[in-house]
Amino acid sequence: MKRSVLTRYRVMAFATAVMLLVLCTCMVFKYGFDRGADLTFVVSQAHGVLFMIYLVFAFDLSSKAKWSFGKMLWVMLSGTIPLAAFFVERQVRAEVEPLVTGGPATVRA
């Protein structure tokens, strides 16, 4: 497996998790203090796009790592739970990194 598969997943997991935290903060301001409805809309749209990209990269990683359906589903759903993506990404990195470094060496000419 290429390192780029893991790197893409990690970047999108971090971006999705950060945007979800920003979205939660915006929702508190929107519904708790009646402020920032426009910002909440923009942040929710950005998070939605990033989450769709995250799902594609998580599926790509899960298919290359040959995970079970349950594990793949858990990794994909972690992008919807605030703070969960940070912890799941760390576990995924620890599990997948040996597959990346332990793979067969390629010879470049």
UniProtKB/TrEMBL annotation:
Cited Pfam families: DUF3817
GO cellular component: plasma membrane
Keyword Signal: no
Transmembrane segment boundaries: 12-33, 39-57
Residue span, DUF3817 domain: 6-93
Subcellular location: Cell membrane
The protein's name in its UniProt record: DUF3817 domain-containing protein
